[in-house]
Amino acid sequence: MLRSFTHHPSEVGETYGSHMATAWGFGLLLLAAGAACLIHGIFPFAFETTASRCVKRLNRRMANRAAASESPIEAAPYQPA
Fold this sequence. Notes:
This protein is mainly alpha-helical. The protein has helices spanning about 1-10, 15-40, 50-70, 70-75. Helix 2 (about 15-40) packs antiparallel against helix 3 (about 50-70). It is elongated and about 45 Å long.
């Protein structure tokens, strides 16, 4: 049963607690972006760039985390011959 809680976090190099904190951080930012979108739908002048900035920020965070966990060979961009 414990393996259900620790398998995925260990695959990505985290403990259960650090994985939960990371996931909650992403989730809270996504909730904020969603709320900004809903408010923007009613008031087009409000939160004009908030959601896109949140998505870009999350993308950078996820890319940085992925790059940190990859080996240098895996992290190198593909360059066709």
